[in-house]
Write a structure and sequence with these properties.
The structure is a single chain. It is built from 21 helices and 13 strands. The strands form three sheets. An eight-stranded mixed sheet has the order 8-7-6-9-10-11-12-13, with helices on both faces. A three-stranded mixed sheet has the order 3-4-5. It starts with a helix and ends with a helix. It is an alpha/beta fold. The radius of gyration is 23 Å and the shape is globular.
C-alpha cells in the first residue's frame, strides 16, 4: 500500500507530461480499491484484468514492481518505450532505465543512498524541471483545541515497530501535556491496541482494526498530528494533509521512504548505520534505544503549535530530528533540525547523490565538486582512503574491457563501504548488459568522471 501511494506523484507528473493520454495502473485490488477516492485520476486494473490490457499498444510502460509476474507482463505488452524490470518473450531479463537500474542496485546496498523512492519512480521519464516545479501543500494546522494525536501502532516488519511499553508510556506523556492519544492500526494490530490500552491504563480511544484506509484518511482530518513508524498509513496521512511525525526505526532509510510532502518530521537514531539500513546484523535493534517517550511527546507538542524555534532547541540524545523538504535541485531532502550535527556518512551520501545525478544528466558536476571540497576540508582521513582505493577500480575496469571478463560475484560488497554505492551500480550495470564492450566503455567513462572529481584535492 505504501508503494502504491508513493507512486501517486508519478501519476500526477505523467498526466501533466502526457496530457490527454489515459494512465492505466495494474495493482492489487485490496490496496487500490480503498484509495481510489484520494488517488490521482487514473484507471486501476486488478491482475484479473490482464486479458483486456493485452489488446492495446502503449506509448510508455513503467514497471515499479519486483514481481516476476509484473516483469513478464511488461515484456509481453507492446509499447514505444519501457522502464523497469522487463522479462522478454525469449526469456531474457533486463532492467531498463538508468534510474530503475540504480534503484535495483541499492538493494542490500543503501547505506549512502539519498534518493527517495517517489523520485526514483519518475526520473527516467519525467523531466527534473517538472518535478522541481511541483509544489506540495503544507500539512494542515487545525485551529481546534481538541488536541487529538493519532498513534499508528503497527508496521509490516517487527523491526520498524515500537514496543507495547513504549506506546503505553507515550500515551501517558501525551495525556500529561493536555493532549488526547488515539490508537490506530490495521486488522492485525487489534491485539496490539488492546495490549497498549491495558498497559497504559488511562483514557485512550482504541480504533485499531476498526477503519479501512478510506475511513482512516477521513478520520485523520480531525487529528492534529499522526505519530507513526515507517508504514503505508504514514504515506496515506502525509498525502491527505495530516501532519506526520515519523518514528524511523529499524530496517528503513528515511531518505528513501520518509513522508514525501514537505514539512513533516522524521526522528532517526544518530548511529552511523541509521541513514541507510536494509538488514540489521547486530545482536539486537540498538537503534530503538534512544526513542524516549517524554522527548517525543515534547516534539509532538511543538509540532502542533508550529513552534519551529522550540524544535531547533530540543535536546534529543541519540536522536536526530529532520523535516521533509526539497533540495536545490527539487528532489526530496531531509533537513536537519536538531540533534547531533551532520556526520561524514551523510556528507558522503550527498556526494554520491550529486555524482549519480551528474552521470545521468540531471545537473552538472559543480555540486559533486563542492561536496568533495567539503570532504577534503573536514574529513581528510576519509578522502585519503578514497584516493588510495580509486586506482584499483581503474585497473579492474581496464582489464575487464581488454578481456571482456566478468567481475567476481562478490565485487561490489567486497569494496570499502565508502565506494559501495558506486561499485553496486557498476556491478549491476555490467550484469544487466551481459558485460558487452559498450557497457565496459560506459563503466570506464563513469570511472573517469569520478576520478576527475576525486583528483581535485
Amino acid at each position: 500500500m505504501g508503494d502504491l501511494i508513493l507512486s501517486f506523484p508519478l501519476f500526477l507528473w505523467l498526466e501533466r507530461t502526457y496530457p490527454g493520454h489515459p494512465i492505466w495502473v495494474v495493482a492489487e485490488e485490496k490496496f487500490f480499491r480503498p484509495l481510489m477516492s484520494i488517488s490521482p485520476k487514473v484507471t486501476y486494473f486488478p491482475w484479473a484484468g490482464l486479458k483486456f490490457l493485452r489488446k492495446e499498444k502503449y506509448e510508455l510502460i513503467i514497471n515499479l514492481s519486483i514481481r516476476e509476474q509484473a516483469a513478464a507482463l511488461a515484456g509481453e505488452l507492446r509499447a514505444e518505450a519501457k522502464f523497469g524490470p522487463v522479462l522478454g518473450l525469449d526469456g531474457s531479463f533486463r532492467i531498463l532505465g538508468d534510474w530503475q537500474l540504480y534503484r535495483a542496485s541499492v538493494v542490500q546496498n543503501n547505506r549512502h543512498n539519498r534518493f527517495h523512492w517517489a523520485d526514483l519512480n519518475a526520473l527516467d521519464c519525467i523531466p527534473l524541471s517538472r518535478i522541481s516545479k511541483t509544489s506540495w501543500p503544507d500539512p494542515r494546522t487545525l485551529q481546534s483545541d481538541s488536541g487529538r494525536i493519532g498513534l499508528f501502532l503497527g508496521a509490516s516488519e517487527e523491526s520498524k515497530r515500537p514496543s507495547v511499553e513504549f506506546w503505553a508510556k507515550l500515551c501517558s506523556e501525551i495525556l500529561g501535556r493536555g493532549l488526547k492519544p488515539v490508537l490506530f492500526g490495521g486488522p492485525l494490530d487489534k491485539g496490539l491496541g488492546t495490549d497498549v490500552a491495558r498497559t497504559f491504563g488511562g483514557p485512550v480511544l482504541d480504533m485499531t482494526g476498526k477503519l479501512n484506509l478510506g475511513e482512516l484518511a477521513a478520520v485523520g482530518q480531525s487529528l492534529q498530528l499522526f505519530i507513526t513508524p515507517d508504514t503505508g498509513p504514514m504515506h496515506l496521512a502525509a498525502w491527505s494533509g495530516l501532519k506526520v511525525l515519523n518514528l524511523s526505526m529499524g530496517n528503513v532509510n528515511p531518505c528513501e521512504t520518509g513522508p514525501y510532502q514537505n514539512n513533516h518530521y522524521v526522528l532517526r537514531s544518530t548511529m552511523s548505520c541509521a541513514l541507510g539500513c536494509w538488514t540489521c546484523v547486530r545482536d539486537r535493534l540498538h537503534c530503538h534505544d534512544p526513542f524516549n517517550p517524554s522527548r517525543i511527546a515534547s516534539v509532538a507538542k511543538s509540532m502542533i503549535r508550529n513552534d519551529r524555534a522550540a524544535l531547533y532547541k530540543t535536546k534529543l540524545p541519540g536522536l536526530r530530528l529532520y523535516s521533509s523538504s526539497r533540495s536545490g535541485g527539487g528532489l526530496y531532502n531531509l533537513l536537519h533540525i536538531s540533534g547531533r550535527t551532520t556526520e561524514s556518512g551523510e556528507t558522503l551520501g550527498r556526494f554520491w547523490q550529486e555524482f549519480f545525478g551528474m552521470s545521468f544528466g540531471l545537473w552538472d558536476c559543480s555540486g559533486a565538486e563542492k561536496i568533495w571540497a567539503e570532504l577534503c576540508d573536514n574529513q581528510p582521513l576519509l578522502v585519503r582512503k578514497m584516493c588510495s582505493y580509486l586506482p584499483l577500480f581503474g585497473k579492474e575496469f581496464s582489464k575487464g574491457l581488454a578481456k571482456s571478463a566478468p567481475l567476481s560475484e562478490n565485487f561490489w560488497n567486497s569494496c570499502p563501504l565508502l565506494f559501495r554505492q558506486f561499485a553496486g551500480y557498476i556491478h549491476l550495470f555490467l550484469q544487466n548488459n551481459d558485460y558487452d564492450r559498450a557497457s565496459w566503455i560506459k563503466v570506464l567513462s563513469l570511472y573517469e568522471k569520478l576520478a576527475a572529481i576525486v583528483s581535485k584535492k
